[in-house]
């Protein structure tokens, strides 16, 4: 097979080959505001460590990043408290749905990892503990990672989730009964629902994750976001838990640390090389973008390049 490394051509090829996979799934409808997004939208953006950017499709259209935000909040808290995170959250794949309650009872309110909802809700609680103004500071952090001041919350999506997020309330209250949520549930979920409602384009997402491909250093500001050891650890968590109970299959098919969200976005990284963001709103039954996974799988196949 001929290895393809002309990235612009490759992204266009991926778009034409994989866009129609969206017909096999459907956009998330358990959050009413997300059900309105057209399943026809599709985008891919790639940026290399040295700043060469390529894109195709609707790569300037902002969408709800949802669980992808869990990487940003985790990074902020990891910077502040380091290994103390592991007193309250595990680092094993869950093998259960992202919003599952089942394991939490057996494991006494300690979520398996920071990327299932329960884990991210504990991280939101830690944000309240360690940031004076978590929502403003989160936005500032994401904007600086992407080098783009226009990134913002979508209040309609946050309000929509607040009105319908009964499972997340259940998770938070349940963990509070074990003493693993320290602030009022309403305050914790206000941070959580807002972080999920951040809107970004694939261009912005690929840039915001580039620090991971750059040994933890924000390439736009030269600031160290995480040291090399923590950069490794975060990407290990993404590889093992970034796509919930589809993380093993994604590692098998794609071979890249990545994080997905129910808005249909997925962002992956090849350390020391590049970051790749895809978006297609139709999801499979695990809550991951069908066409997005297909595009990423073909990316690593056609370039013969992955972390393995
Ligand atoms: N806001 C979504 C939820 O809490 C995030 C889940 C996701 O993207 N997997 O259900």
Brief write-up:
The protein is of the alpha+beta class. It is 46% helix and 11% strand. It contains 14 helices and eight strands.
Features:
Beta-lactamase, binds glutamine, 8 strands, 308 residues, alpha+beta, five-stranded antiparallel sheet
How would you explain this protein's 3D organization?
Helix content is 46%, strand content 11%. The chain is globular, with a radius of gyration of 18 Å. The chain has 308 residues and is α+β, with helices and mostly antiparallel strands. Strands 2-1-8-7-6 form a five-stranded antiparallel beta sheet, with helices on both faces. Strands 3-5-4 form a three-stranded antiparallel beta sheet. The chain has one domain (7-303): DD-peptidase/beta-lactamase superfamily (Beta-lactamase, 3-Layer(aba) Sandwich). The chain starts with 6 loop residues before the first helix and ends in a 5-residue tail after the last helix. It contains 14 helices and eight strands. A hairpin with a 3-residue loop joins strand 7 (265-270) and strand 8 (274-279). The structure holds glutamine. Glutamine (GLN) binds at residues 66-67, 98-99, 117, 161, 168, 196, 261-262, 287.
Helix content: 40-55%
Q: Overall pLDDT, averaged? A: 96
Total count of strands: 8
The shape is globular
- Structural Rg: 18 Å
Summed up, the helix count is 14
User: Tell me about the biggest sheet?
Assistant: 5 strands, antiparallel
Number of structural domains: 1
Query: How are the strands of the biggest sheet laid out side by side?
Result: 2-1-8-7-6
Distance from first to last alpha carbon = 18 Å
CATH topology: Beta-lactamase
